Each structure stands twice: as structure tokens, then as C-alpha cells.
Amino acid sequence: MTPVLEVEGLVVEMRRHRVAFRAVDDVSFALEPGSALAIVGESGCGKSLTLRAIMGLLPNRGRLISGRVIVDGVTLPSDARGRGRGHRQHRRMSIVFQDALSALNPVATIGSQIAEAPRHVLGLGGAASRARAVELLRLVGIPDPERRYHAYPHELSGGTRQRVMIAIALSSDPSILLCDEPTTALDVTIQTQILALLADLRVERGLALVFVTHDLGVVSQVAERVAVMYTGRLVETGPTAAVLSAPRHPYTSGLLAAALDVDSPEREPVPIPGSLPDPLGLTSGCSFQSRCQFATPECVTTDVRLERVGPDHEAACLHSDVLAAAQAAGRRG
Ligand SMILES: Nc1ncnc2c1ncn2[C@@H]1O[C@H](COP(=O)(O)OP(=O)(O)OP(=O)(O)O)[C@@H](O)[C@H]1O
Ligand code: SF4
Ligand SMILES: [Mg+2]
Fold it and tell me: Does 232 map to a domain?
């Protein structure tokens, strides 16, 4: 199947204290229509900037150094900030951010905010765009949509506001939805409902999904493929089931060990030692070296890249076979 979205060699440079660093470093992936990819990693590893670069929404201190974003076979034009020039293919993508309250206009009704894209992007008249907004409110599971159309953001619960954000994202009729931690601020029950809504939208509308999260626990609920990100790079990618059951990068296995496992509540989570290195202080070799129990002198000198470790499964680790052997020994013991 032809991918609906291809991201090739994305490199984003950020500046801090006038020093530039690569916050996104050579990120590539492809997404087929209706498929979903989860991008997972600790805070500061470059997940949001990856989505922003794809959308052409880099912050002022960011620069797109290289890379291409291809939607339905068409390469999107962009300037050095990664900003698109209103290309119609850009409208095939929408983004949902984590913080619905600050993303919504507090002095406009939610209905009028949803109706904006049908009116200005799709060119519908006033009555038709209002009808479309009501239909979208219904689609995202908001009861009594005709009445709720007139509500203001502060009158709604966090879960309902996030549903409104999804309705706004859908209002320009995209085929790709980029979600940046859309459920992180919500309690578990509401989170499950929003994830179910996204799953329905994939089936009903053939939406392709990129879902960013720092929570490995939600990955298998939301996506059949996962990409694990560390210091701006993808360090492991593959089918979710394979990556979660037999990770081939020590960072992924560390994230799994650090996560609560609802199926084995007796297992104590074990945090990964140390913290994400300061991107301004990165040295040569593998960026996980200071936290990795498998590190050898080779890891300090070799520029490690993604390599095939299984069917459709890649990891950027010189010693992924040692990790596999340790896992096998652990299972036997
Ligand atoms: N507007 C900005 N100005 C300067 N540096 C930034 C800016 N936004 C992000 N960065 C830096 O770029 C790197 C990647 O940030 P990004 O926001 O993409 O991380 P993230 O993986 O989304 O983290 P989180 O899980 O906390 O949202 C970090 O080092 C961060 O400090
Ligand atoms: S390359 Fe070396 S330091 Fe990096 S994750 Fe693999 S074993 Fe650890
Ligand atoms: Mg983020």
C-alpha cells in the first residue's frame, strides 16, 4: 500500500544560550492509510518537535536543517523554520495537542471554533459549517451536540475539551492525525474513552495516526507500530507486539522495566539509572552509553545507526544480541 505520510531524514536544530543542537536527528518513518504509529520516549527526547516539524509549526528558535515530509506522494514545501506555505497537502494533516484548555479560544463558543475550518478551509456557508460542527461534536461522542455547540471551553470537563480538540482537528477533513500526548492530562477512565474514540476514527474514516506519548502503557492500545526516541533519534522501531515483548535496545527495555505493569502488579518498577543527557553536552558514540548496563568501549567511539534485528524491526544498538541473550537467560531462570 502507498504510504499516506513519509518522513525522510528530518533534522531539526534548536538553539540554547546561542548554541545549536540537534533536537531531532535523522528521523524517518512511513505511515499507511488507516495505520497508527506511536512515538515514545522520555521528556525532552524530541517527540513534540518531530510532530511540529512535520506540521510546519517549529518554534522560533527551531530550524529545519534537512529532511522531507511527503503526503500522498507530494513533497511539502517548507522554509528554514519548517513552516509550510499553505500548501493544500498540509491540510491533509491535523494536530491535537496535550493541553486543550490553552489551545482553545476562551471567548469563543466551541461550536464556532469547530465551524471555522469548514467555513474558511472547505468553503462551506454559515449554516452548512454550523451543521458540520454539530455533526463533528456528535462524532466525537459529545451528547446533546446542538446545545453544547454554544458552550464555552471553561464550561466543559477536561475529557470533553479534548474531544472538542479532536473535533477541531477533524474539521478540515484530514487523512492524517498527529496527536501530541492528547490523553496525558486526563484520568485513566477518560483516557481509555479518548483512545477508543481514536481507534473508531481510524476504522470509520481511514485516519492514519501518529500518537506521541511518554507512557508505554498506552502504546499497545493505540498503535500497531512503535518508534522509541532518545536524544532526538529513533533508537528502535517495529511492530508494537515485538518491540514490547522482545525489545532490542537497552533504552526500550529500560522504559519497560520502569513502567507499571497492570498484569504483574507484584513487579516493582525499576527506573532507568541517570537522566536524559543535556543535548549540549553529548559526546561521540551512542547517546545512551552513560545509562547503559551493556555499554563497552566500542559504544563510546561508534556512531550507532538503526539496523535490522527482526522482521520489520530495527534497533540502534551495537549489542542488541547481548540484550536478547540476557532476556532469554532471564526467561529460563
Ligand atoms: N521552544 C523551544 N525552545 C528551545 N528549546 C526547545 C523548545 N522546544 C523544545 N526544545 C528543546 O528541544 C528538545 C526536544 O524537545 P521536545 O519538546 O520535542 O521534547 P518532548 O519529547 O516532546 O518532551 P515532553 O515529553 O516533555 O513533551 C529538548 O531539549 C527541549 O528542551
Ligand atoms: S550501543 Fe552500547 S551503549 Fe548504546 S545502547 Fe547499545 S550497548 Fe548500550
Ligand atoms: Mg512534548
Answer: no
Q: Is 176 within 8 Å of 92 (Cβ atoms)?
A: yes
Q: Which of ligand 2's atoms lies nearest the C-alpha of 323? A: 7
Residues 246 and 167 in one domain: no
One pLDDT digit (tens) per residue for the chain, 333 residues = 789 999 999 999 999 888 999 999 999 999 999 999 999 999 999 999 999 999 988 998 899 999 999 999 988 877 656 565 555 667 789 999 888 778 899 999 999 999 998 888 888 899 999 999 999 999 999 999 999 999 999 999 988 999 999 999 999 889 999 999 988 878 888 889 889 989 999 998 899 999 999 888 899 999 999 999 999 999 999 999 999 999 999 999 999 999 877 677 778 889 999 999 998 888 899 999 999 999 999 999 999 999 999 999 999 999 999 999 998 888 777
Q: Is residue 235 part of a domain?
A: no
Does the beta carbon of 96 sit less than 6 angstroms from any atom of ligand 2? no
Give the position, in ligand 2's atom list, of the atom nearest the Cα of 304. 1
Segments forming the whole domain that contains residue 291:
242-332
231 falls within a domain:
no
**What is the pTM for the complete model shown?**
0.94
Please tell me if the CB atom of residue 292 comes closer than 6 angstroms to any atom of ligand 2: yes
Q: How far apart, in whole angstroms, are the C-alpha atoms of residue 162 and residue 168? A: 10
Residue 43 shares a structural domain with residue 135: yes
**CB 317 near ligand 2, within 6 Å:** yes
